[in-house]
Amino acid sequence: MYRNSMLRPLGSLRALRSFNRARPFSSSIPRLDSIRPLDVLTEEEEMIRETVQRFANEVVKPRVREMDENERMDPDIIKGLFEQGLMGIETSAAHGGSESSFTSAIIAIEELAKVDPSVSVLCDVHNTLVNTVIRKYATETQKEKWLPLLATEQLGSFCLSEAASGSDAFALQTKAQKVGNDYVLNGTKMWITNSYEANIFLIFANIDPSKGYKGITCFIGTKDVGIEIAKKEQKLGIRASSTCTLNFDDVKIPAENIIGGEGQGYKIAIEILNEGRIGIAAQMLGLAQGAFSLSVPYTYTRNQFKQPIGTFQGMAFSFADAATQIETAKLLTYNAARRKEAGLSFVKEAAMAKWWASKVAQEVSGNAIEWMGGLGFTRETGVEKFWRDSKIGAIYEGTSNIQLQTIAKFIQKEYTP
Ligand SMILES: Cc1cc2nc3c(=O)[nH]c(=O)nc-3n(C[C@H](O)[C@H](O)[C@H](O)COP(=O)(O)OP(=O)(O)OC[C@H]3O[C@@H](n4cnc5c(N)ncnc54)[C@H](O)[C@@H]3O)c2cc1C
């Protein structure tokens, strides 16, 4: 009896393995040998992580404080991101990109945020929003024209929000009127990331307000079509990342620059922001880890009461709590990314990852200041910057309430009897 019961699990495992071998790859149930821990990276993902880590530490780190103080992104960093192949991570090699995966993009965003969340969001918006819209919805001719520019030299911006349409993004009022073969755009966009340095803009405008959100259309244009920077915001955090108000005053865009067809802008924006949120989760995850790594080592070198402060139980338990929170944010983020990449449903998981990672980022970076005492409160260490930068995670690409609303909708659908 004893021997049999011991052998049964191994026997079942053997049977399952042979079942797996016999099963076609297309089955929706993953093969046993394809399951691995979420945070174990593939060789390619690990290579990207190492490349980005090196770039972040050698090129970005020495400039972080100056960029924050000056509220300006160093152009050499943007140039460096292009040179490292980090501005077309998922773009095909034929279009000048690195032809890697969504999860690789997420890892790059996380690694950059460990050092500077401003550089991270620049790379994030460019890759997960701008490049992805073109890769997914543009015609072949449009891809030929825009993807190589975006992968190798020109920064992109995603222009959806307006003064009166934030969470309610599809109440936007920018209009596009057809005149001959062109559309003439009039309106004002607000809060547009990267727009100070960018040359390529995705612009959401309504071609027929009588149709409501079904009139929203996505246009692509370069700055020289007449996009005017009306104001550059001065912000609490991510100060090196530009955030501007843009005026569109009779801006002419050829009809051939519509992406995805007339009236498809609503669908494009929703789908892109659903996956873009995993990018913000990755930014917040990296930020939390960055604050943790910067502050904890100090506590083992600083003595009070003749003892390193990090060894007091009150401090040690706080580190354990923070490390566990970071781990949960990581698993949620990686899971959402891997689900998206595997073609599985991911919208609920993405909302959970963004909501949770932004909470973790705020809490861990806030605690990190306290762990360092008075020193943490100065601008010298960079820990207070992580805390300032963390606030934005709960606001852009859908506020925390909007994420909770999304998660709650799934719960209601699943549990309504
Ligand atoms: C630094 C920065 C960069 C940005 N970058 C971009 C960009 O590149 N492109 C772009 O298009 N936009 C960008 N945005 C805009 C951003 O996406 C919006 O700020 C965000 O969606 C919130 O909109 P809002 O600021 O109008 O706030 P509001 O929508 O006015 O929300 C204010 C508060 O009301 C709550 N609220 C609103 N509706 C509900 C509801 N139904 N239920 C419960 N609570 C609700 C919100 O949760 C929030 O707490 C950026 C914003 C910032 C600050």
Automatic annotation (TrEMBL):
<dbReference type="InterPro" id="IPR013786">
    <property type="entry name" value="AcylCoA_DH/ox_N"/>
</dbReference>
<dbReference type="InterPro" id="IPR006089">
    <property type="entry name" value="Acyl-CoA_DH_CS"/>
</dbReference>
<dbReference type="InterPro" id="IPR009075">
    <property type="entry name" value="AcylCo_DH/oxidase_C"/>
</dbReference>
<dbReference type="Pfam" id="PF00441">
    <property type="entry name" value="Acyl-CoA_dh_1"/>
</dbReference>
<dbReference type="InterPro" id="IPR006091">
    <property type="entry name" value="Acyl-CoA_Oxase/DH_mid-dom"/>
</dbReference>
<comment type="pathway">
    <text>Lipid metabolism; mitochondrial fatty acid beta-oxidation.</text>
</comment>
<keyword id="KW-0274">FAD</keyword>
<dbReference type="Pfam" id="PF02770">
    <property type="entry name" value="Acyl-CoA_dh_M"/>
</dbReference>
<comment type="similarity">
    <text>Belongs to the acyl-CoA dehydrogenase family.</text>
</comment>
<feature type="domain" description="Acyl-CoA dehydrogenase/oxidase N-terminal">
    <location>
        <begin position="42"/>
        <end position="153"/>
    </location>
</feature>
<dbReference type="InterPro" id="IPR036250">
    <property type="entry name" value="AcylCo_DH-like_C"/>
</dbReference>
<dbReference type="InterPro" id="IPR037069">
    <property type="entry name" value="AcylCoA_DH/ox_N_sf"/>
</dbReference>
<keyword id="KW-0285">Flavoprotein</keyword>
<keyword id="KW-0276">Fatty acid metabolism</keyword>
<dbReference type="Pfam" id="PF02771">
    <property type="entry name" value="Acyl-CoA_dh_N"/>
</dbReference>
<comment type="pathway">
    <text>Amino-acid degradation; L-isoleucine degradation.</text>
</comment>
<comment type="subunit">
    <text>Homotetramer.</text>
</comment>
<feature type="domain" description="Acyl-CoA oxidase/dehydrogenase middle">
    <location>
        <begin position="157"/>
        <end position="251"/>
    </location>
</feature>
<dbReference type="InterPro" id="IPR009100">
    <property type="entry name" value="AcylCoA_DH/oxidase_NM_dom_sf"/>
</dbReference>
<protein>
    <recommendedName>
        <fullName>short-chain 2-methylacyl-CoA dehydrogenase</fullName>
        <ecNumber>1.3.8.5</ecNumber>
    </recommendedName>
</protein>
<keyword id="KW-0560">Oxidoreductase</keyword>
<dbReference type="InterPro" id="IPR046373">
    <property type="entry name" value="Acyl-CoA_Oxase/DH_mid-dom_sf"/>
</dbReference>
<keyword id="KW-0443">Lipid metabolism</keyword>
<feature type="domain" description="Acyl-CoA dehydrogenase/oxidase C-terminal">
    <location>
        <begin position="263"/>
        <end position="411"/>
    </location>
</feature>
